[in-house]
Amino acid sequence: MRVVPLEKTDLTLPDIAELAKGGTVILTRKGKPLAAIKDLSGSDWESVSLANSPKFRTLIEESRRAYQDEGGIGMDALRRELGLKAPRHAPRKKKKT
pLDDT tens across 37-46, in order? Predict the structure, then answer.
């Protein structure tokens, strides 16, 4: 993570975007965080928009709370109910000692 004080920099937005490829860049004003710049390369629009949607976050939180309070159905039971096969996992590699 890099911190860039806006009062002391002559970096352009493209420069900061390039810095963000190495990790989040925090822009500060008067020593206080103002904005975070994060590289979104490899992300799709749907994932980015959902991750930043307050309505979607609220929906997920409500669902998690309901699952904790009322219970739910596990993935294995759901697959059985829908007649789906369990995903195949790649064999684990043995650790060298």
Answer: 999 998 999 9
Amino acid found at 48: V
Phi, psi of 36 (to 5 degrees): -120, 130
Question: Any idea how long the chain is?
Answer: 97
Which residue stretches of 3-87 are H helix? 13-20, 45-51, 54-70, 75-82
**CA angle, corner 29, sides to 38 and 10, nearest 5?**
75
| pTM beyond cutoff 0.70 | no
Buried b (16+ CB within 10 A) or exposed e, 35-51: eebeeeeeeeeeeeeee
Residues 1 and 3: their CA atoms lie apart, in Å, by: 7
